[in-house]
Specification:
Blueprint lengths: L9 E5 L2 E4 L4 E7 L2 E2 L5 H16 L6 E10 L2 H9 L7 H18 L4 E11 L6 H14 L1 H15 L6 H11 L5 E2 L2 H9 L10 H10 L8 E4 L5 E5 L2 E12 L9 H5 L7 E8 L8 H22 L4 H19 L4 E12 L2 H16 L4 E2 L6 H7 L14 E5 H4 L6 E2 L8 E5 L11 H7 L3 E4 L29 H12 L14 H30 L3 H18 L1
Parallel strand pairs: 4-15
Antiparallel strand pairs: 1-2, 2-3, 3-6, 3-7, 5-6, 5-11, 8-9, 9-10, 10-12, 10-13, 11-12, 12-14, 16-17
Length: 561
């Protein structure tokens, strides 16, 4: 059994800094996902070199973490923002349309998510005194909450521990600016230490933040139970869930263009993916060079023995020799090497659900040469080790990948294939495997869980985070009969609800004929609808119930049309 501390180790949070129980400090940053098309080969190469440069600047910190988390999308909030841009005379229609869209998306997809990336990096510019360290150790080991409160007060009000990290944190922010890393706020820093204990549960974010602001001891306020079937059970006031960590045991010998992040984001259900990095020592008895020399001697002996006995191990030994020679050349060229632990994490309400996720992940990763294992007896270790507050250490040996830093960057971190706007009208879904469905759109819909939203006028707005251009130019291309006109009409209809003057040129007179047909049908059925609504008003006194009944009557008419 691997060993790791099972307690919440955070005793104080200030902005993006978290103070651990041993006096060390980690800095937390959010790194926005850069949108790179799956077909943009040159763009991927450039971005991998950029991330390698950033990671190389972290070598003095010895380690760092990356977490890719599925963050729920609040559709009500997004649609509320969109409604603010709708015209007064179209507001009711826009509200009705977005309410039905909200219901349809939740009904067909479930909870929509975005993937966010976070990094945690240990800061080394400050050492607390031996007396304070001993106080921390004693407080955590024997008195916990009461004594830790005293120690925290000492650190915060007498020492202002975070002030000693200002320069190191500022330097780190400068290094991460190349990938647009930003410091998390105090609320975010505490909350994202907490989310590990909320996996698979429908929690209230604001309540959780308030609880952590009250006391950081509430970060791990969840009952954690290792179950015999190789999962972790979580239980708190929100209910129960099952969590399973799936570590990567082996990467292929050649990782060029493996793009693990890209593959993971195509999975048809939300997953977490965590990486724990530790830079390899380049000098000393336990350095990479020394390990390489010892490995080389062993391979030579095994090769001689294999040739003498005619063993079928010749091929694998030759491959090992090539890999070792490449590593040796890298060491000679003073390239950076890292050890890292990579782990998928899934959550569900039943073993059947969790096992389904496990099966899909293992099958999908096998296709690209990545071996994902169940980690049956080490679930507690992986649960606690993958917290943002924990760092990979030399003593960690299980499922560790060792490679050049440049090779590790082939995972294609901090990227997304997102299409469209954050706030806009839903126009479809991203199909990540168009070649697999053979024209069966129902299978494609069932496996495509990333909705596409679009607001063409957002390009003209200022201050939109992540917006690349102010040019609203837009083109729709495709073969005859593939739906160009259908999409164009839908976009025009949606955007006509906004506070804008629009001009639609309809040379074939298609839209006018369609509008007139619907208008005639609506006028014919309108008296019946008014009669049903009036009956509902007389029979129902509860305002909220009446509201939804009227909505249902209107929806029934719209479906008939």
């Amino acid at each position: 059994m691997n060993k790791v501390d099972f307690e919440n180790r955070v005793i104080s949070v200030h902005d993006n800094l978290a103070l651990r129980d041993d006096g060390s400090v980690i800095a937390m940053y959010e790194v926005p996902a850069s949108i790179i098309s799956s077909m943009d080969v040159e763009g991927k190469i450039k971005f991998k070199k950029k991330t390698e440069a950033v990671f190389a600047s972290l070598a003095p910190n010895l380690s760092f973490d990356i977490g890719m988390l599925p963050v729920p999308i609040n559709l009500e909030e997004r649609f509320g923002a969109l409604l603010e841009d709708c015209a007064d005379d179209t507001y009711d229609m826009a509200l009705y349309f977005l309410e039905k869209t909200n219901e349809d998306l939740y009904g067909s997809i479930g909870q929509l998510i975005n993937y966010k990336f976070f990094m945690t990096i240990p800061l080394k510019s400050f050492e607390v005194s031996g007396d304070i360290k001993q106080m921390l150790k004693d407080a955590w080991g024997r008195f916990k909450e009461k004594a830790v409160a005293v120690v925290r007060q000492t650190l915060e009000f007498e020492m202002n521990w975070y002030e000693a990290y200002d320069k190191a944190n500022g330097d780190l922010e400068l290094n991460l600016s190349l990938i647009q890393g930003r410091k998390t706020t105090k609320k975010e820093t505490g909350f994202y230490q907490r989310v590990d204990y909320l996996r698979g549960l429908n929690y209230n974010r604001d309540e959780e933040i308030a609880s952590i602001e009250s006391s950081v001891q509430n970060i791990d306020d969840t009952v954690i139970e290792p179950l015999s079937n190789g999962v972790i059970g979580l239980k708190n006031s929100y209910g129960k869930s099952l969590v399973k960590a799936l570590p990567i045991a082996n990467m292929p010998n050649v990782v060029n263009n493996i793009h693990l992040v890209e593959h993971a984001q195509k999975l048809p259900f939300p997953i977490e993916l965590h990486w724990k990095f530790h830079f390899s020592k380049m000098k000393g008895a336990f350095s990479l060079a020394s390990k390489g020399e010892r490995a080389s001697d062993r391979i030579k002996e095994n090769q001689i023995e294999a040739y003498e006995n005619g063993s079928n191990q010749k091929g694998s030994l030759a491959t090992a020799r090539i890999i070792l020679d490449e590593m040796t050349d890298g060491v000679d060229n003073r390239e950076l090497f890292v050890n890292y632990l990579a782990t998928f994490v899934v959550a569900g309400q039943s073993m059947r659900e969790v096992n389904y996720y496990k099966k899909i992940i293992q099958s999908d990763m096998k296709d690209i040469g990545v071996q994902v294992v169940s980690g049956m007896s080490d679930q507690l270790y992986f649960f606690y080790k993958n917290r943002f507050i924990e760092q990979l250490e030399e003593k960690d040996k299980y499922c560790i990948q060792a490679m050049k830093l440049s090779s590790a960057c082939e995972n294609l971190f901090f990227t997304s294939q997102k299409i469209g706007s954050d706030i806009g009208f839903p126009i479809g879904r991203i199909d990540h495997a168009v070649e697999s469905w053979a024209g069966d759109y129902k299978k494609a819909l069932a496996s495509s869980t990333n909705a596409v939203f679009l607001n063409l006028f957002q390009a003209n707005k200022q201050g939109i985070a992540g917006k690349i251009t102010d040019n609203p130019a837009f083109a729709i291309v495709g073969q005859t009969g593939e739906g160009k006109s259908f999409l164009t009409k839908g976009l025009f209809l949606c955007h006509s609800l906004l506070k804008a003057l629009t001009l639609y040129i309809d040379p074939k007179n298609e839209m006018k004929a369609q509008y007139m047909k619907i208008k005639a049908k609506y006028e014919a059925d309108f008296p019946k609808m008014e009669f049903e609504i009036e009956q509902a008003r007389e029979a129902i006194e509860d305002e909220e119930q009446l509201y939804w009944v009227i909505r249902g009557i209107e929806y029934k008419l719209s479906r008939a049309i």
